[in-house]
Known about the structure:
Helix content is 35%, strand content 13%. The protein has 7 helices and 7 strands. The protein has helices at 18-25, 47-60, 86-93, 128-145, 156-171, 187-192, 201-213; strands spanning 2-5, 34-38, 72-73, 97-101, 111-113, 179-185, 219-224. Helix 4 runs antiparallel to helix 5 (156-171). It is elongated.
Amino acid sequence: MAVFALDPALTAEGAGPYAAAADSALVDFRSSRSIAIAARGAVSGGGDAQIACAAAAAIAGQAPATSMVLKRLGGFQIPLEAQYSPSEIKAIAALDIIPIIDPALIAGPSLHFADGRTYTDDATLGYIDVVRLLDDVEFRLKAGLINMIGDARITKAGLISVATRAQGILGRLLGPGGIDAFEVRIPVLEILRAPRASWTAPQTNLVTEARGNREVQMMVNIVLGPSIHLLKINLAPTYT
Length: 240
């Protein structure tokens, strides 16, 4: 994923809000694999490049399924007078730009990600952890199944071994790994499980083509268990 940072010297033009100036500075940068960082007034030796590098290092240091909300990063400082107000934080985050903040409820001076979004218009890939988790799952499946190419056969037993291997790979990602549930489907295997006499003409053609082309399609459906990004607490006092 690409991580870039706004110029820490960026300020609102005239009487306009800072969020509008930040949004204008990032025209044409939107992508499901982009992460935009805003750290107004940040003090570092390398400017926006060092801020981006620090953010990238902090993201890389977390497991793929970990949300970046309130995760800590270092490498630069932000003077108190330059830090964002609560309204600015909301406005900047609403634009899919991640403001860097020093939360009042976390003891001691420290900088943290105030949001975990990607800088994109694709709602399905709107969070850093979703993109990283999907990349991780895809890599694990390819790496774990590559040695079955050329060995597993297009038979009931052969495709069961492929499905079992894929299920074993995905099973290790359940729970803390970010996946809540998963399903592995191999259409050809579903046909081969049934008696040959019960196959329809389209099913017979599918098996024939798969064996003739030596190509099998596998579909993996995963259910993500997203992290909490907002916790609303309602106090209801009672008197007795």
